[in-house]
Amino acid sequence: MLSDSTAKMRCRMRKQLFIKRNKVCDLSLALALAGLIFVVVDAELTALSTDTNITKRHPISLLLRSLCLISTIALMASLVNYHAIEVKIALIDSGADDWRVALTTERLIKLAIELLICAICPLPGTGMMSWPFIHPENRKVTMVDVPVDVILSVPMFLRSYLLCRFMVLHSKQFQDAATRSIAALNRISMDFRFVIKTMMADHPLRVLIVFTVSYWICMSWMFTQCERYDGRVPAEHYYLNSMWFIMVTFMSIGYGDIVPNTYCGRTLSITTGIVGAGVSSALIAVISRKLELSRAEKHVNNFMADSKLTNQRKNAAASVLQETWFIHKYKMSCTKGDDLRLRQHQRRFLHAINEFRRIKWDQRKLQEKGNSLLDVGKLHNEMHETLWEMHRTQDQFIAQVDLLTQKIVELQNTLLMQQQRGYLPAPNAACLPLTQSTSSSALLHIPVPHGSTVAQFDSSNLPPCP
């Protein structure tokens, strides 16, 4: 059993580790973005070498790639520090003393994958490589020279998973201790899935718009890196074409005016199509939910429809009575030409009856639709009223029992006082009065049928007390 001082010390250490973990996560994200910015600037400067005169062997390019390498090494160290803090938090939660208890195989695999993803970066002094290029005219495959930095810079966007971790650790749900406790009691993990679901529930359109625009920009740059080294079009013209191709592929349109000519571009286009299908389905679900009527709006529409059907039913009933009176009138009349009017009013009578039946059927369907809206609320109200009535009856019963017990105690005290004054003889053990410790079950009234021997047994048949 832990003492109060030990528990307080562990809570304090856990809080400090939480704050330190957030700072390490912020540092990791900053280092990842810094390395990515260095790579993007270096790739753009060297791709526009005809205007900037900066090649891969230029000191500026070597400096940028060296800074990217340094930031990558610092990023890997911060990742190791982050998982070390996770192990310390797990030790405090489990109460173990050895760090190897919290260092599970799953955590080691996760650390290895993160280090492998973040270790990818362009190195200073990398040269050129050849990869296949498919000509769109004759579909002939030729080999073109591409910098090795292209192969190493495109996978660097996988570092964006650190942004997901940043969103989780800085979310309102994760920072609130009460929310974390409730989630733990309900066996809900406070991970990125829960956070993104909460954001989609609160601000769905904002989340989808930000994700879509960010995805378009990143994929357009990567697609440009894969496609612009064929030497046919100036490098700066590829950005607009890449943005157009990514947007069209994202929306699953595909006009065919721009096609990927490398296997890298084809891989990115397939990925864009898959992600676009998911985002499009989510957007359709959000729009359909926004267009759906609320409960209050449905109640208003049902009330208006019910009022309209009620008026129509009254008019149909009046038409039935009116046509009935006309039929009776022309049946009793002997004027020439009344037979034609009689048939006409009989047809109107049948039409009024059918219209009355149709309106009744529409009212029945509207009532069933309204009952489906009110079932849950009505059931909740009925349950609340029933429970309230039960509590009220129980309180009344307890009050009556307490009052009866009080009266019996008063009667007992009165008998004891009379006995002490000499008015009554001292009772023996068989004639002791009820004490205050008498249970309430002994005070319950038991109904006895008339005519039984128990009903005829009264106080006159009791044996005298000595």
UniProtKB/TrEMBL annotation:
<dbReference type="GO" id="GO:0016286">
    <property type="term" value="F:small conductance calcium-activated potassium channel activity"/>
</dbReference>
<dbReference type="GO" id="GO:0016020">
    <property type="term" value="C:membrane"/>
</dbReference>
<dbReference type="Pfam" id="PF02888">
    <property type="entry name" value="CaMBD"/>
</dbReference>
<keyword id="KW-0406">Ion transport</keyword>
<feature type="domain" description="Calmodulin-binding">
    <location>
        <begin position="306"/>
        <end position="382"/>
    </location>
</feature>
<keyword id="KW-0813">Transport</keyword>
<dbReference type="InterPro" id="IPR013099">
    <property type="entry name" value="K_chnl_dom"/>
</dbReference>
<keyword id="KW-0472">Membrane</keyword>
<dbReference type="GO" id="GO:0005516">
    <property type="term" value="F:calmodulin binding"/>
</dbReference>
<dbReference type="Pfam" id="PF07885">
    <property type="entry name" value="Ion_trans_2"/>
</dbReference>
<feature type="transmembrane region" description="Helical">
    <location>
        <begin position="205"/>
        <end position="223"/>
    </location>
</feature>
<feature type="transmembrane region" description="Helical">
    <location>
        <begin position="111"/>
        <end position="134"/>
    </location>
</feature>
<protein>
    <submittedName>
        <fullName>CaMBD domain-containing protein</fullName>
    </submittedName>
</protein>
<dbReference type="InterPro" id="IPR036122">
    <property type="entry name" value="CaM-bd_dom_sf"/>
</dbReference>
<keyword id="KW-1133">Transmembrane helix</keyword>
<feature type="transmembrane region" description="Helical">
    <location>
        <begin position="62"/>
        <end position="82"/>
    </location>
</feature>
<dbReference type="InterPro" id="IPR015449">
    <property type="entry name" value="K_chnl_Ca-activ_SK"/>
</dbReference>
<dbReference type="InterPro" id="IPR004178">
    <property type="entry name" value="CaM-bd_dom"/>
</dbReference>
<keyword id="KW-0407">Ion channel</keyword>
<dbReference type="Pfam" id="PF03530">
    <property type="entry name" value="SK_channel"/>
</dbReference>
<feature type="transmembrane region" description="Helical">
    <location>
        <begin position="146"/>
        <end position="164"/>
    </location>
</feature>
<feature type="transmembrane region" description="Helical">
    <location>
        <begin position="268"/>
        <end position="287"/>
    </location>
</feature>
<keyword id="KW-0812">Transmembrane</keyword>
<feature type="transmembrane region" description="Helical">
    <location>
        <begin position="238"/>
        <end position="256"/>
    </location>
</feature>
